[in-house]
Amino acid sequence: MPVFTTPFASLDLYRQPPQRDDPLQAFDAADEYLLNHLAEQGLASDARVLLLNDSFGALAASLAGKAQVTSSGDSHLGALALANNLACNNLPADSVQFVPASQTASGPFDWVLIRIPKTLALLEEQLIRLHGQLAPGARVVAAGMVKHLPRSAGDLLEQYLGPVQASLAVKKARLLLVTPVDKPAVASPYPSRYLLDSPPLALLNHANVFCREGLDIGTRAFLPHLPLNLGTARVADLGCGNGVLGIACALANPQAQLTLVDESYMAVQSSEENWRAALGERAVTIRAGDGLAEQAEDSLDIVLCNPPFHQQQVVGDFLAWRMFQQARAALVKGGELWIVGNRHLGYHAKLKRLFRGVEQVAANPKFVILKAIK
């Protein structure tokens, strides 16, 4: 395990979820560049520091105990990684305050260090929320790996905060140095909304929700084939996004008991608001989680899933495979995992390794809907 060494600390850091022989690190050169810059500028022990989108806690763990540190991001896995990395390095759990992106961190802050997220709508919402949260003379620095740093990120920083100066690239990382100026408060364009014809729903989507502007094509293929006549079955929408699969299933199965889970706090927030709009006070469990890791074994009858094929910038089926394993553990014998996936991903073969039966429910030229039986 590579050690992350900066002027602030030398740390053993781990990604979340854990993966055997993981070739990827929990930090990168942009984290290192940010912390080196902060050390050069000088950090007072009473400084209030806000960290945005610190993926696995590399920045927060490095600064823990060196200042008053608040970390905010939209990933529950990121929050788990931060807690784990603090513990692994014998740092107090309360040395960093974590604020989910569904809430607003409370300033004023002397420093704001930003890792540019993959979804620029999330960055825009975060910058809008910074209005009135900066202390006099506050400094704002954003960072990213050059290959993941779009020009529009700098445009957003300039639009909402002030002039931006780009640094030289170091180890393929770059800093964007912002000079905050007084700007009027701006109304956020988020959440956004779109209408669904069948079932008829108005769906609200907070800034970091997948396919925020319209229903993704995988879910569109899945919706007409959701299971019916479920009675009082216990059903989970795993990786629920804005909650559309779980809500549609609940509408079609009035007595079913639904659980909606996502690792994005903004997805959970969107699901909660969409559920109430569509189903009022009908009982439901909606939570941020590491998939079904916290779900009791043999406690579900049906799991619905449109699995992701990436974690931040990393593409692969690791998360999907893990979700399939979690679903199998949580399902009763005879329980069913229903998924939609791109044909080329070969989920049929993967599911056969875990489940005693796999059936194709439907297909089109791009997607396949599968039912795996435990």
UniProtKB/TrEMBL annotation:
Domain RlmG N-terminal: 1-180
Catalytic activity: guanosine(1835) in 23S rRNA + S-adenosyl-L-methionine = N(2)-methylguanosine(1835) in 23S rRNA + S-adenosyl-L-homocysteine + H(+)
GO cellular component, one term: cytoplasm
Pfam families: MTS, RLMG_N
UniProtKB keywords: Cytoplasm, Methyltransferase, rRNA processing, S-adenosyl-L-methionine, Transferase
EC nos: 2.1.1.174
EC category name: transferase
Subcellular location: Cytoplasm
Highest taxon, organism lineage: Bacteria
Every Methyltransferase small domain range: 202-371
Entry function: Specifically methylates the guanine in position 1835 (m2G1835) of 23S rRNA.
Family of the protein in this entry: Belongs to the methyltransferase superfamily. RlmG family.
Protein name as it appears in the record: Ribosomal RNA large subunit methyltransferase G
Organism: Pseudomonas turukhanskensis
